[in-house]
């Protein structure tokens, strides 16, 4: 997993899973705490995430809310969009451009 960017926009690539969760959490929390306004998280280079990785995203979302900020997901890959819809998290998280539920392939 790699994360690059600043306190306004971060790009996440590779795998966001149990192995990388602690490092990702540290970087995301620092970005939330040290910035202002929306924090955009570009996931277009993300290969996969597991439940732990999704938990890191949700933790950053809650922390951003407590800091008066909003976490916005950009470039969510289709397989991860399906997971967000299946868990109904697409209704809670801010997703740039939204998710076209009707256009996702049925599983």
Automatic annotation (TrEMBL):
<feature type="domain" description="STAS">
    <location>
        <begin position="1"/>
        <end position="107"/>
    </location>
</feature>
<dbReference type="Pfam" id="PF13466">
    <property type="entry name" value="STAS_2"/>
</dbReference>
<dbReference type="InterPro" id="IPR036513">
    <property type="entry name" value="STAS_dom_sf"/>
</dbReference>
<dbReference type="InterPro" id="IPR002645">
    <property type="entry name" value="STAS_dom"/>
</dbReference>
<dbReference type="InterPro" id="IPR058548">
    <property type="entry name" value="MlaB-like_STAS"/>
</dbReference>
<comment type="similarity">
    <text>Belongs to the anti-sigma-factor antagonist family.</text>
</comment>
<protein>
    <recommendedName>
        <fullName>Anti-sigma factor antagonist</fullName>
    </recommendedName>
</protein>
<dbReference type="InterPro" id="IPR003658">
    <property type="entry name" value="Anti-sigma_ant"/>
</dbReference>
